[in-house]
Design a protein that fits this description.
This protein has 292 residues and is α/β, with parallel strands linked by helices. Helices cover 47% and strands 16% of the residues. It is built from 11 helices and 12 strands. Strand 7 and strand 8 form a beta hairpin. Helix 2 packs parallel to helix 11 and helix 9 crosses helix 10. The termini are close together. The mean pLDDT is 95. Bound molecules: pseudouridine-5'-monophosphate and manganese (II) ion (MN). Pseudouridine-5'-monophosphate binds next to helix 1, helix 6 and helix 10.
Length: 292
């Protein structure tokens, strides 16, 4: 009997993306869902400068409750390691640590991307998540990206860097809270096995980088675009007024949207994270089956 296939999970969503105690409950639930679907969950984070692929329950609880947990993107890695700090990993660093640990697939909520500028043009704030997808061979399962980002420009960037974007049961790129964005994905897949075949083909060709697998939020949890758009516009303006920069921008926008929409966006967020954990486990199992 071989070991069950592993699924990586990130920790920025735990430390900075959701309020306590929902963050801790969600992290525990995502691990349980991965197990129920035949895979082995590995929540990734940094404790005392050590990169860990498979945090213990008490380490997850620490990242869910401690105040001084740094949000760690790629450029922060040498700092937290040298100074032995605690860190929550973003999509970029979770991918990188997962790959180092031999894990091929990772489930999260939404990826970072190209931010919206004030005058409607794209901002120069571009998440390191996109470059990581270009370089590191890990499948990232998400609900697309929040419309806090410039979604058309984010997809152009992924195209430029050769990142294939898959839609699960959809031809449209999902916009996190909303199932649709009006923007096309590169390919629609209706099963985990189809995704596994595309991944195997990509690896077989020797192409570098990851695969972005997008899953629309479950219908009952969806917040229509017309409802969320004014909230996003307000939060984006406030971020600009405060002259926020760099790593501060995304957590600020996420917190303000949560405050302005209340329990609704929290419920949406939890629903899509659990849904993505299930999909990632199913793809991991399909990959293992095809490898045999
Ligand atoms: N988008 C979300 N929820 C999140 C994040 C993004 O809807 O929790 C987090 C992820 O960890 C992502 C990071 O990798 O924010 C991107 O941050 P930045 O834009 O600073 O690269
Ligand atoms: Mn940024």
């Amino acid at each position: 009997m071989t070991h069950p296939p592993q699924v990586a999970l990130e920790s920025t969503v735990i430390s900075h993306g959701l309020p306590y105690p929902h963050n801790l409950e969600l992290a525990t639930e995502m691990e349980a869902i991965v197990r129920q679907h035949g895979a082995d969950p590995r929540t990734i984070g940094i404790i005392g400068g050590e990169l860990i692929a498979g945090l213990s329950g008490s380490q997850i609880e620490h990242l869910a409750t401690a105040r001084d947990v740094r949000k760690v993107s790629r450029r922060d890695l040498p700092i937290v390691v040298a100074r032995r700090l605690d860190g929550a990993t973003t999509v970029a660093t979770t991918m990188w640590i997962a790959h180092r640990a031999g894990i091929e697939i990772f489930a999260t909520g939404g990826i970072g991307g190209v931010h919206r500028g004030l005058d409607g043009s794209p901002s120069s704030d571009i998440s390191a998540d996109l470059q990581e997808l270009a370089q590191t061979p890990v499948i990232v399962v998400c609900a697309g990206a929040k419309a806090i980002l410039d979604l058309p420009t984010t997809l152009e960037y992924l195209e430029t860097y050769g990142v294939t974007v898959v839609g699960i049961g959809t031809d449209e790129f999902p916009a996190f809270y909303s199932r649709k964005s009006g923007l096309p994905v590169d390919v629609r897949c209706d099963s985990a096995a189809e995704v596994a075949s595309i991944w195997r083909a990509k690896r077989g060709l020797g192409l570098p980088g990851g695969l972005l697998v997008t899953v629309p939020i479950p219908e009952e949890a969806e917040i229509p675009a017309a409802e969320i758009e004014p909230v996003i516009a307000q939060a984006t303006n406030e971020a600009a007024e405060r002259r926020l920069r760099s790593a501060e921008v995304t957590p600020f926008l996420l917190t303000r949207i949560a405050e302005l929409t209340g329990a609704r966006s929290l419920q949406a967020n939890l629903a899509l994270l659990k849904n993505n954990a299930q999909m990632a486990a199913q793809i991991a199992v399909a990959l293992a089956a095809q490898a045999r």
